[in-house]
Automatic annotation (TrEMBL):
<dbReference type="InterPro" id="IPR016181">
    <property type="entry name" value="Acyl_CoA_acyltransferase"/>
</dbReference>
<dbReference type="Pfam" id="PF13302">
    <property type="entry name" value="Acetyltransf_3"/>
</dbReference>
<dbReference type="InterPro" id="IPR000182">
    <property type="entry name" value="GNAT_dom"/>
</dbReference>
<dbReference type="GO" id="GO:0016747">
    <property type="term" value="F:acyltransferase activity, transferring groups other than amino-acyl groups"/>
</dbReference>
<keyword id="KW-0808">Transferase</keyword>
<protein>
    <submittedName>
        <fullName>Putative N-acetyltransferase p20</fullName>
        <ecNumber>2.3.1.-</ecNumber>
    </submittedName>
</protein>
<feature type="domain" description="N-acetyltransferase">
    <location>
        <begin position="10"/>
        <end position="175"/>
    </location>
</feature>
<keyword id="KW-0012">Acyltransferase</keyword>
Amino acid sequence: MSGYFVRDALLLRPLEPEDLDQLYRWENDTRLWENGSTVTPFSKFALRQYLQDARQDIYQVRQLRMMIVDKGSNRAAGTIDLYDFDPLNGRAGIGILVDEDFRRRGYGLQALSCMEDYAFNHLKLHQLYAFVPAGNKASRALFEKAKYEKSAVLKDWVTVSREFVDVIVMQKIKK
């Protein structure tokens, strides 16, 4: 993906080596782990390697992570990912993290819109899906606002605070 994807207040750009410290902070924030699949901290070395590999083609590595950047301050506001990219079946998972300093300002919805444009119009995907822990009301509200539909509930799918919780599968199918 070349260039930038721009919306009102933000742009999406590829990861850069300068993002190392910010990624290190987000990836090692244990409060965020329950919304993903992280169970151990990341070293700066491992993240540096990840940044080097992130430049590879989505068709090779089956994932793409972009930085969400606030246009006004040029600060990193979060990340958005396509993962489990499956070009044969025209689908990919999508995940998003918006930094606490930038929440409730529409960045999540704008970032989803940018990534959807890329996924549906450039990659020619048929659908995107997200796995949302049932208790993550903010994430669920974001995907609902972006017109993702609840398609399934995976019972006792992940552990949060040592308890099994359901995960809601949300899908957006290109019309």
